[in-house]
Amino acid sequence: MRFLLLLPLLLIGAPAFAQQQIGSVSTNFRLIGPNDKVVVERLDDPDVANIACYASFAQTGGVAGGLGVATDPSQFALNCVATGPVTIPADLPQKAQVAAISASFLFKHFILTRMVDSDRKTLVYVLISTKILSGSPANAVSAVVATGVGPAEKP
Predict the structure, then answer these.
(1) 103 phi and psi, to 5 degrees?
(2) Does the pTM exceed 0.85?
(3) Which of 28, 54, 57, 90 is the most buried (most CB within 10 A)?
(4) Above pLDDT 90, what percent of the chain?
Protein backbone atom coordinates (compact mmCIF):
# COMPACT_ATOMS: atom_id res chain seq x y z
CA MET A 1 0.00 0.00 0.00
CA ARG A 2 2.80 2.43 0.92
CA PHE A 3 4.44 1.70 -2.44
CA LEU A 4 1.29 2.77 -4.31
CA LEU A 5 1.20 6.04 -2.38
CA LEU A 6 4.87 6.83 -3.12
CA LEU A 7 4.91 5.74 -6.77
CA PRO A 8 3.46 9.03 -8.13
CA LEU A 9 6.12 10.99 -6.21
CA LEU A 10 8.89 8.94 -7.80
CA LEU A 11 7.43 9.34 -11.26
CA ILE A 12 7.27 13.13 -10.88
CA GLY A 13 11.04 13.15 -10.43
CA ALA A 14 13.61 14.94 -8.37
CA PRO A 15 14.33 18.66 -8.53
CA ALA A 16 16.21 19.94 -11.56
CA PHE A 17 19.96 19.69 -11.17
CA ALA A 18 23.06 19.23 -13.27
CA GLN A 19 24.36 15.69 -13.06
CA GLN A 20 27.32 14.37 -15.00
CA GLN A 21 29.08 11.04 -14.85
CA ILE A 22 32.80 11.67 -14.40
CA GLY A 23 33.92 8.06 -14.84
CA SER A 24 33.98 4.59 -13.36
CA VAL A 25 36.37 1.87 -12.16
CA SER A 26 35.66 -1.87 -12.51
CA THR A 27 35.75 -3.71 -9.18
CA ASN A 28 34.64 -7.23 -10.08
CA PHE A 29 34.97 -9.08 -13.38
CA ARG A 30 31.77 -10.66 -14.70
CA LEU A 31 31.90 -13.32 -17.42
CA ILE A 32 28.41 -12.37 -18.63
CA GLY A 33 27.26 -8.76 -18.67
CA PRO A 34 29.09 -5.64 -17.53
CA ASN A 35 31.52 -5.73 -14.61
CA ASP A 36 30.59 -4.43 -11.16
CA LYS A 37 32.04 -0.95 -10.76
CA VAL A 38 32.34 2.20 -8.72
CA VAL A 39 30.85 5.19 -10.56
CA VAL A 40 31.70 8.83 -9.86
CA GLU A 41 29.08 11.50 -10.68
CA ARG A 42 29.12 15.26 -10.22
CA LEU A 43 25.96 16.84 -8.82
CA ASP A 44 25.79 20.64 -9.04
CA ASP A 45 23.63 22.47 -6.52
CA PRO A 46 20.80 24.12 -8.53
CA ASP A 47 20.30 26.93 -5.98
CA VAL A 48 23.84 27.83 -4.93
CA ALA A 49 26.45 28.82 -7.51
CA ASN A 50 29.95 27.32 -7.48
CA ILE A 51 29.21 24.14 -5.51
CA ALA A 52 29.90 20.72 -7.01
CA CYS A 53 29.29 17.50 -5.10
CA TYR A 54 31.07 14.35 -6.20
CA ALA A 55 29.36 11.09 -5.30
CA SER A 56 30.91 7.68 -5.80
CA PHE A 57 28.73 4.61 -5.54
CA ALA A 58 28.79 0.89 -6.21
CA GLN A 59 26.98 -0.27 -9.34
CA THR A 60 26.03 -3.91 -9.84
CA GLY A 61 26.97 -5.48 -13.17
CA GLY A 62 26.13 -8.88 -14.62
CA VAL A 63 23.00 -9.67 -16.58
CA ALA A 64 20.65 -7.87 -14.16
CA GLY A 65 22.92 -4.80 -14.08
CA GLY A 66 23.16 -4.77 -17.87
CA LEU A 67 19.36 -4.83 -18.16
CA GLY A 68 19.02 -2.06 -15.56
CA VAL A 69 17.03 -4.13 -13.08
CA ALA A 70 19.73 -4.82 -10.45
CA THR A 71 19.58 -3.10 -7.08
CA ASP A 72 22.87 -1.40 -6.32
CA PRO A 73 24.28 -1.78 -2.80
CA SER A 74 24.09 1.17 -0.39
CA GLN A 75 27.81 1.87 -0.58
CA PHE A 76 28.77 5.41 -1.49
CA ALA A 77 30.92 8.40 -0.62
CA LEU A 78 30.46 12.16 -0.99
CA ASN A 79 32.71 15.19 -1.28
CA CYS A 80 31.42 18.69 -2.03
CA VAL A 81 33.74 21.51 -3.08
CA ALA A 82 33.57 25.21 -3.85
CA THR A 83 34.60 25.87 -7.44
CA GLY A 84 34.47 29.65 -6.92
CA PRO A 85 33.08 32.15 -4.39
CA VAL A 86 30.07 30.72 -2.51
CA THR A 87 27.35 32.98 -1.14
CA ILE A 88 24.28 31.60 0.61
CA PRO A 89 21.14 33.12 -0.95
CA ALA A 90 18.94 34.90 1.62
CA ASP A 91 15.86 32.92 0.58
CA LEU A 92 17.56 29.51 0.65
CA PRO A 93 15.50 26.96 2.61
CA GLN A 94 17.12 25.51 5.74
CA LYS A 95 16.78 22.02 4.25
CA ALA A 96 16.08 20.87 0.69
CA GLN A 97 16.57 17.85 -1.56
CA VAL A 98 18.89 18.91 -4.38
CA ALA A 99 19.53 15.70 -6.34
CA ALA A 100 18.76 12.01 -6.71
CA ILE A 101 20.61 9.11 -8.29
CA SER A 102 18.69 5.98 -9.26
CA ALA A 103 20.12 2.85 -7.62
CA SER A 104 17.54 0.41 -9.03
CA PHE A 105 14.55 0.39 -11.32
CA LEU A 106 12.01 2.58 -9.40
CA PHE A 107 12.69 1.18 -5.94
CA LYS A 108 15.90 2.69 -4.58
CA HIS A 109 17.59 6.06 -4.87
CA PHE A 110 20.52 7.92 -3.40
CA ILE A 111 19.18 11.31 -2.28
CA LEU A 112 21.36 14.41 -1.84
CA THR A 113 19.97 16.86 0.71
CA ARG A 114 21.39 20.32 1.51
CA MET A 115 21.13 21.85 5.00
CA VAL A 116 22.20 25.34 6.08
CA ASP A 117 24.33 25.87 9.18
CA SER A 118 23.63 29.60 9.58
CA ASP A 119 25.87 29.96 12.64
CA ARG A 120 28.96 28.87 10.69
CA LYS A 121 27.83 30.12 7.24
CA THR A 122 28.25 26.59 5.94
CA LEU A 123 26.25 24.40 3.59
CA VAL A 124 26.08 20.77 4.68
CA TYR A 125 25.28 18.06 2.13
CA VAL A 126 24.07 14.60 3.17
CA LEU A 127 23.78 11.65 0.79
CA ILE A 128 21.43 8.88 1.94
CA SER A 129 20.04 5.67 0.53
CA THR A 130 16.28 5.23 0.29
CA LYS A 131 13.97 2.42 -0.64
CA ILE A 132 10.22 2.70 -1.06
CA LEU A 133 9.46 0.14 1.63
CA SER A 134 12.43 0.62 3.97
CA GLY A 135 15.31 3.03 4.03
CA SER A 136 18.91 2.44 4.97
CA PRO A 137 21.13 3.99 7.63
CA ALA A 138 23.91 4.35 5.04
CA ASN A 139 24.91 7.99 4.63
CA ALA A 140 27.77 10.33 3.75
CA VAL A 141 28.24 14.00 4.63
CA SER A 142 30.27 16.91 3.25
CA ALA A 143 30.31 20.63 4.05
CA VAL A 144 31.23 23.80 2.14
CA VAL A 145 31.91 27.14 3.84
CA ALA A 146 30.40 30.23 2.23
CA THR A 147 33.15 32.63 1.11
CA GLY A 148 31.21 35.41 -0.58
CA VAL A 149 29.66 38.47 0.98
CA GLY A 150 26.43 40.24 0.19
CA PRO A 151 23.26 38.94 -1.48
CA ALA A 152 23.63 35.95 -3.77
CA GLU A 153 22.06 35.32 -7.12
CA LYS A 154 20.79 31.89 -8.03
CA PRO A 155 22.61 30.24 -10.94
Answers:
(1) -115, 0
(2) no
(3) 57
(4) 40
